[in-house]
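Hey L., structure's done. Input below.
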Amino acid sequence: MSVLDPRHFKVLCIEDEPEILRDLVEELRDYGFEVGEAPNAEAALPLIETLAPHLIVCDMQMPGMNGLELLHKLRARRDDLAAVPFVFLTAFGDRDSVITGRRAGADDYLVKPVDYDLLIAAVESHLRNVAQRAEKVSAASLVVAEAEGLPGREDLQRRLETAAAVQSVAVVRIDDMAEVGRRFAGHDPRHAYRLAARLARMAGIDLYWLKLDCCVLLPGAGANLDRALARLADFALRDSDSGGQARTRVPLSIVTGRPDERGAMVLVDQLVESARLLQRDGGGRTLALDDPALSEMRLANSIRSELVNAINQGQMHVCFQPKVRASDGRPLSAEVLVRWDSPLLGQLSPGTFIPVVERAGLLSHVTDWVLRQTALCQVRLREAGLPARLAVNIGGSEFTSGLADRIAAICADVGADMRDIEVEITETSLLEDPDSASAIVEALHARGVSVALDDFGTGFSSLSHLQSCAVDMIKIDRSFVRQVAEEGTDQKIVLGIIRLAQMLGVETVAEGVELESQRRWLRENNCATLQGYLISRPLRFETYCDLLRDWPDA
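Output:
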């Protein structure tokens, strides 16, 4: 089977989210493509001239010139670049956006979070079409990169169907096939194949190639798979970068497993996917299919894949946990908490999915959705004559100079009042860039938005940071509140935080209040506001409204 040689093709990636851009570029480079990168459409314009890409992968929504505008400029050219295949990346593949893009000349769409196997398949497909259409592409642009004489997937299936029960299976993935070809195989991947096959035969292992960078290993009669894998993990080739004088280990991702009642080929497919995840996580390791590290990778991958569906299909919702005045128990506001009930993954806590979403560069979509839900609920609370003040957690990557404008635009769109919005940020958000954080807080204050410092005491805040960044509230972390009614270190810390806040003219909020003794001590020691299960658990909106209506002091 012949495949496209990626080294002969150039791909330009345009994406304003740095982590997504990094992953796109790394994935395509790992596969062997020459890749250019641009953080926005304006930066991409001169690159299109100099790189002359064979294909462009571009985010649809970007600040400044968006992807559609860039596509219009490209298609209006009067040279060969006007016909370059153009693949859009979009977080929400709605029908109208797809139609608009198709009419503008887009060739394909990929929905974020990106399925990288689908990305490679789409890129290969379009580049293959480019190669077939262009008469100038010589036979040298394509190479036969198959392992001649080596067994493949069909041979593996026959072996698994006819052989006795297979006790163990391993999938091995070369972490960087392009680098192997450049440094070790004289640009001929078949050389690496033959060496790997010879090594496997020496260990009594049967090897089957599934694709250019991936093979399956089965133990032969009396062979020890674990021992063979240990040797394979140390697999080294002569390195051309050293003039061929030194041998360098070839980085491999290896995943092992045992067949169950579902069958060996089902296991093979699971192992292949797990090896891909391991490779994306850095590779160079050997893990079992049931290893906790792989389980975490699979969960993270599922979270990324399901996020867009979760928002579009109403799997996410917000809950409201009341905050009350400590002196008289009167409700003041509520913290808005996002929840995800996934049909595939079950109930996911924010602590599980938010870090994954943030690392994937997709937190802005969740943040905007939560802000809009908060604004809509605030309008309904105000119309019902109920306390309308609501607080929203903002992740560190979202605490940017444009935050005040984002909140203003959403509030204006739904008719909400920004003065009844509180923003909760962590100490880390302040510490990364204190000067920038101070400017962001000032911009929020200018719009009437209050700012609370969340989880206070668990990070590395100092008096200087509190003085330079004038937050309105300090939220005392629940870890200190837990033992606050008992004499000891936690009680002294909380008392110190309350006195510090009083000196700075900052309000204090105690999180995690669960016992009457905690409430009593906090009230007696002048903590202004209380929040926790003793007051109320997080509630759905209608239940929260009912609670406010029935509140004795309301």
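The CA atoms of residues 5 and 143 lie 6 Å apart. The two ends are 75 Å apart (CA to CA).

-- N.
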